[in-house]
Amino acid sequence: MKTPEAFKDQIYVTKPFMPPLEEFSSGLREIWQNKWLTNHGPVLKRFEQKLARFVRSSNLCLFNNGTLALQVGLQGLRLSGEVITTPFTFVATTHALYWNKIRPVFCDIEPDYYTLDPERVEESITPWTTAILAVHIFGHPCYLQELQDIASRYNLSLIYDAAHAFGVQVAGQPISDYGDLSMFSFHATKLFHSLEGGMLVFQDPDLKTTFNYLQNFGFENELEVVMPGTNAKMNEMQALMGELNLEYLQAVLDRRKDIDSVYRERLHGLPGLHLTDPPPAPVEHNYSFFPVLIDGEEFGMSRDELYQALKRFNVFTRRYFYPLVCDYPCYRSIKVRDGLPVARKVSSRILTLPIYYDLGLDDVHKICDIICYLQKQV
Ligand code: T4K
Q: What is the pLDDT of residues 123-134, one digit of tens each?
């Protein structure tokens, strides 16, 4: 097989979708005229209303990033003690617990979609458990019914880190309909972004006031502070980017679906490369990542060797999420009940391939050519 040519420019795991510059500049003109840049300005209010229609709920609150949204969410629910969570996630999930002085209890994941394994969750409950913090990792919905049953039976809060799950629907309902609270990240690397940003969607309408206090220093009015809040507000430029991007969301989802199909068609059956099945109906997926697992022996090179080899072709994949969060020095002292065998296996084999709106299908074919070439070389 002829050696494929390297890409001229670097291909990253993701690239932000950018709306037409003219639309952004015309929005900036409005902001310039308003001279209102943050603290619940008119663009933010408009964006909030559009999102409320999108998630079919007005129980939402916007933040300057997803991490602070989650920290505020946990604080507003007044959680303490232990919270059961996954080690196979971005560090921010666990950091949000730590910043609330909550002890994370790491629990193993299931091997199909890499979300929390409900059986392991139930085994991890102690008298100190107050909540389950599960992650819809790569946009794969968790075992929603099973986790809800456990949460209801043990009277626990059920919180979803839905950082990857914007746009995911289950039986025609937004994924935020599940659990007590969902946090979405609108970071630049996400399929839907507001430069940086975050959103909480929740079931209890009374929480909205609490979250609004908590994200704005606890101010009730000029003279009264009702709780020790932080500063976690979304500003007007973020809101503008989000508002514009919402108009293009369907186009972004469609393109990602096409990219996902090409990868599946081209990489299916490649020895040592395991594709993750798309979530089954009635889930409408958002194709936020394209994760594959590499079995080093069968593939002929390890996941890390493939990751390095792809760089020589200017393809910059990522090992999301390796190492496991429980293996970072700041969390290593926390004992885990079992060895987290599934999470360890997945984390040591995972590789997420490039997927984003501007990635041409020819480029996806070329990435597949390179992977097939590397596999045959060994
Ligand atoms: N929970 C979960 C499960 C999460 O995945 C995240 C964030 C959070 C919570 C917290 O939400 P936020 O507070 O971030 O809203 C990135 C993102 O920074 C992070 O938001 C995201 N998860 C995580 C999965 O990925 P890095 O350190 O991998 O980002 P970075 O800068 O290496 O970017 C990745 C690639 O994206 C680069 O190779 C190039 C490309 N890129 C990046 C940026 C920032 C661009 O093309 N343009 C850009 O502006 O964490």
A: 999 999 999 999
